[in-house]
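Section handout 9: paired folding examples.
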Amino acid sequence: MTQDNDELDSLVRKRIRALRLAQGWSLEELATRARVSQSTLSRIENGGRRLALDQLVTLARALDTSLDQLVETAGDDVVISPMIDGARGQMRWPMKAEPGVSVIRQRMTDPPPDSPTRMRAHPGHEWLVVLSGTAVLLLGNRRIRVETNQAAEFPTMLPHAIGAEGGPCEVLGIFDRDARRGHQRGDGI
């Protein structure tokens, strides 16, 4: 085995043990859930048994994770620089772990639109947190104040709009692929 394979092997074994302990499970409990013997599981965790793909799949399921997450390694590019959209006053960071998901930071100065016809609805899901100031989220027939350090989460199929209240506010939004596409067609969060 190469050094990289040895490191991955060790990482996966540590991850199995850590996930088991995080669930508060004994070796016996995880072994039962994964339908392997307690001895086999112990040897897998301690490096006394070769890691087999079929057992990794079974263990991943028993640990309520995916095989991808069980074997993923941190890349060299852990730090991501933002893409800046000066026209919209936004910074955007794509999330590699969830392709299509974006994180957007935006400073808002305008209040939300006063006409329901300016609210938008589109497929997707959105989560936002107000970093500073106060935002107003119009969601269907509701008017919701979201203050500094508060968050809001909603399906974007509901007609929605957001703006500042009582001065500028800064918002960090997380958009799934569909919500991001819906907002790329318009402007702002």
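Moving on to protein 2 of 2.
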Amino acid sequence: MAISRGHRFPIEFDDAFPQGLVMVGEISPDNEYQSREDRAAGRPARQRVDEMTGKRQWKATVTDPSEPNAKRASFEVTFLADVQPVPTTSEVLPGMRPVELEGLTAEPRVAGNGEFKYQSFVFRATGFKAVNSGGGRAGKAPAEQSAKAA
């Protein structure tokens, strides 16, 4: 039995991002393309709706500190929720905050051009979880080491 195109695999956050993620900027609605004529006529932008869940789509740019290739370290995550998700952490630098995603899924896809193609993923989440200091497994290790030393 083949896996159908567009299948979303549920994945644990720590397995996908061992050092956590850093959200850059804010969450914004994922709007459909609006032509110049539509903008000139004053038509409002329509927010995309996920075909599988029926929920509205939101997007945020994140950076994966464990990615060795700088060009692939930053990417967009799509949030599927009726209302705009709110991060549970505070900013560590202006516009940057560590985040941990809830309800994470990964959809494989091919990225790149010509002979420079590579395996990539479309990540979707349903919201945010509270983050330990530093996020991911990297943030959990010092606490575990402290407990063993005591």
